[in-house]
Amino acid sequence: MNYQRMAIEKEAPEEVGSVIKCNLSESAISDQTLESLNITIPPDMVLTYTEHKGSHGIRSVVAQAAGGAICADDVLVTAGASTSLFIVKSAILGPQDHVIVTRPNYATNLEIPRSVGCDITVIDLDFESQYRLPLDLVAASIRPGVTKLISICSPNNPTGTTCTAAEVRSLASLARDNGCYLLVDETYSELRYPSQRAGEDDIIPSAAGLGSHVISVGSMSKAYGVPGIRIGWLVNTDARLQEKFLAAKEQISISGSVLDEYCAERILARRAELLPATIANMQKRRDRVERWIAEESEWLDWVKPDAGVMCFVKIKKQPAGGISSFYERLLQRHGVYIGRGGWFERDDSFFRLGYGWPTWEELEQGLAGISKALRE
User: Fold this and answer.
1) Beta 75-78 vs 22-23: how paired, if at all?
2) Of 17, 112, 114, 133, whose CA is between 20 and 30 Å from 9?
3) What is the pLDDT of residue 200?
4) What is the pLDDT of residues 290-325, one digit of tens each?
5) How far apart are CA 59 and CA 343, in angstroms?
6) Would you state the pLDDT for residue 68?
7) Cβ count near 127 (within 10 Å)
């Protein structure tokens, strides 16, 4: 494995430090506490190994949320979605394999195949097409007998856009017909907004239910505001493949953290209560950003997100002094931090704006700071 640090990690807010006053770079809701989630850790809890596949309670909730297409045995609990992605790709890919990855994407989805040494075909999702999945380009990129994996992120990070149910089904059929796996990063699936353009048939609870060659990945970090407990999962209905993924997990960490899984169980027990309130709050925040984008239409544009708590904003004309100067004065003068396009292998005329993590006051201050920095 040829590991290289990613720009998004080098420039993560926790790496930048106290100069940040308004953090609009995050892609999650605000960080929660044990108190805010009504969790008390029993003082007599035994700090032992957990079941290697992960808590049956967590796995059962994940399976139930998938609408009956999968069962608890199809779920492997991991230390966050990032670990799920590592397990999947390191377990099934070798240097001789060809991988198709859509972009923009969560950086790890691109970097792990590079670390393995795979031959990669990148399919760019374009702003002009509203980041729609170009199925024809994916199909044309498949190399029979060589392509091992097709990898997408839906709902997408950083755009917040989603593939339709028909697109995901078509992709699953395409992968099956060509003897390759389909990996769907579904980390933001629990943060979907009510759709104005689609009916119930437009939502697939979990792509893993579409066939034993399909793998989906999820996490608690984004929708529940608990990245610190490191709970994610991967889902697949092929028992032999799941055994391989379990072997990888055991060689990495044996099991998960008993404390993390305890907290996760308590949070997921309140899933039906927590998620609707979160989505309603995030929808109000998205509406505020939409009004701001409209006010700044001379400078900015976007594709309105279908899910998640972030959007990918396009700078339409050159700010004073150029793009690099804009980012520098935004942080240094206004204390506002956003995720530049380079984090996602895009031009820095795009930036990820996270509206779920800051307080309302910080969000307002951050948007005002961006407006000022564009013009200064």
Assistant:
1) unpaired
2) 133
3) 45
4) 999 999 999 999 999 999 999 999 999 999 899 999
5) 32
6) 81
7) 16
**Phi and psi angles of residue 39, each rounded to the nearest 5 degrees, phi first:** -110, 130
Structure tokens at 77: 């609990």
Provide the percentage of residues in the chain whose pLDDT is more than 70: 98
pLDDT: is 139 or 66 the higher one? 139
pLDDT digits (tens, 9 = 90+) for 223-240: 999 999 999 999 999 999
The four Cα atoms 23, 27, 30, 32 give a dihedral, to 10 degrees, of -130
Cα radius of gyration rounded to whole Å, the chain:
20
Burial 17-32 (b: 16+ CB within 10 A, else e): eeeeebbbbbbbbeeb
Q: How far is CA 15 from CA 3, 294, 330, in A?
A: 19, 32, 17
Q: Per-residue pLDDT for 197 more than 60?
A: no
Q: What is the secondary structure of 277-290 as a DSSP string? A: HHHHHHHHHHHHHH
Dist. CA 251–CA 83, nearest whole Å: 12
Mean pLDDT of 29-37: 97
The pLDDT of 51-75, averaged and rounded, is 95
Helix axes 360-375, 323-334, angle to 10 degrees: 130
Cβ(280)–Cβ(189) below 8 Å: no
Q: What is the DSSP string of 8-29?
A: HHHT-HHHH-TT-SEE----SS
Identify the pLDDT of residue 337: 97
| Strands 119-124 vs 75-78: parallel, antiparallel or unpaired | unpaired
Cβ–Cβ under 8 Å, residues 108 and 82 = yes
For the sheet containing 310-315, what is the strand order? 300-301, 310-315, 350-354, 339-340
Return the SS3 of 102. strand
Sign of torsion, CA 94 95 96 99? positive
